[in-house]
Design brief:
Blueprint: E1 2-4, H1 7-18, E2 24-29, H2 35-47, E3 50-55, H3 75-84, E4 89-91, H4 95-98, H5 117-120, H6 124-139, E5 143-147, H7 151-163, E6 169-173, H8 193-214, H9 220-232, E7 237-245, E8 261-268, E9 271-278
Parallel strand pairs: 1-4, 2-3, 2-5, 3-4, 5-6
Antiparallel strand pairs: 7-8, 8-9
The structure holds pantoate.
Amino acid sequence: MRIARTIPEARAAVASLRANARCLGLVPTMGALHAGHISLVRAARAACDAVVATIFINPTQFASGEDFAQYPRTFEADCALFESEGVDLLFAPEAAEMYPEGFCTVVEIEGVSDRLDGQSRPGHFRGVATVVARLFNIVAPDKAFFGQKDAAQVAILRRMVRDLNFPLELIVCPIVRDPDGLALSSRNRYLSPEDRGHALALARALCRIEERIVAGIFDSASLLEAGRAILAEEPAIRLDYLRIVDPDTLEDLPNARHGALVAVAAWVGSARLIDNLLIP
Ligand code: PAF
């Protein structure tokens, strides 16, 4: 596995991969890898001839007071994992490489960026869209792989790919969960053993909503009430949002129709966790 630290190095390495690869896959990450990231790499390996992964803890997607400084940095272990999964090239730039002095161009997906996490974390999706657009321009992949766990990020990036005519396919891979149901996240490392137990209520709330839908209840207000009741059983949980929305626009839906997104975000101890369910 080659490691590129600068944009010219990454471009040169991509060009030499391109000589033998008809389909190039990109897996953008912020490192602190877990099985969810590995599922993206495996999907990329299965669908593409060469795989480029990135590790960049993007400062512009963290608001002041968020966990940028504490975000887990496990570069050596991440490299070993990517290498063992057959990643061909890792692009891992420093912040100064991605944001040199004078950098002032941003990508703003209007409207959608202000919903769900975008509402609670102003500026977050501007940071995500800007860095991902640049990774797309640097690597020029045919397919780019993202996790369904960050459903709002998926909506933002889908819109961006369409609106800015990026010539690539966005592939969204299913949420990977621990056996007890907790959705994998790099931020699960912040959870104490007790908090980890409390955090299971997020998946339980989504399951309760799914059960109700299977039982034929589609009214969003009563579904959300049932989900909130589960979360309220855990006083350690501070709910940020629980909503039933259109998965593309992230606007609230009065009814949980086919394809609707049920999304939850909550604080458990010092960890802000997200999870979601797409209504089949
Ligand atoms: O999902 C993530 O880890 C990040 O938001 C991403 C897509 C790598 C952009 O920094």
